[in-house]
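Q: Here's a chain of 232 amino acids. Please give me its 3D structure as tokens.
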Amino acid sequence: MLRNTEIGIAILAKTPGLSPVKTRLVPSISQGGAEEFQRLSLLAIEEVVSQLLGSHSGITAYWSVAEESSLDNLLWKKFDVIFQGDGEFGSRLYRTYSQMLMRHGFAIFVVSDSPQIVPAIFIQAIKILRQKSGRNRFVLGPSLDGGFYLFGGKQLLSEKFWMDIPFSHSETAQALCESLQSDGDVMFLPTLSDVDKGSDLSILHAELAAIGNLNFRQKILFDWLSNNFIKT
């Protein structure tokens, strides 16, 4: 569904149980546990974006889904759906970002394994992108492991640009920023953790605890972590 709004926000998603998800969590936790974490994380981020939509106009939310056979999955019923297409991660980011910029003035995408994100981070990203400047502006949410959990901009970037970024690397965010130097200025959001390996679960638990005012779905995830993985 096309909507004439200023900003598109997409949550990058794989379908738990259909594609391998959070494989590096295994064997720290079971495959079923990894899939449950993915599901709870997706729902927590969905709730954050829903809070944002409820308080700010001019935004359309999307699921950017990896599997074409899962586009009508009930898990995605709350937002519009974009198909990432086949190929490597860079190609799928290119398609997601490009599709949103075809429909909106600004595009933001967020990964699915930083469920401690809060509406204020999105609001900060939107304010940065709206600021008038002599150069294009991009916004980046860096992760503790050297990657990033959020990217936003209003300028199209080629598929080659995305394919040349070394993803899942300790210098992914740095490489992205260096590649953007000729296209515009990169503005940074707060650094968050993301979940790749078992030890990251306790870091996420601590970051969720520090928020203090969790939404309903974040609270469910927090309790799940507390009951299954956090030693007291």
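Q: Can you summarize the key feature?
A: The mean pLDDT is 93.
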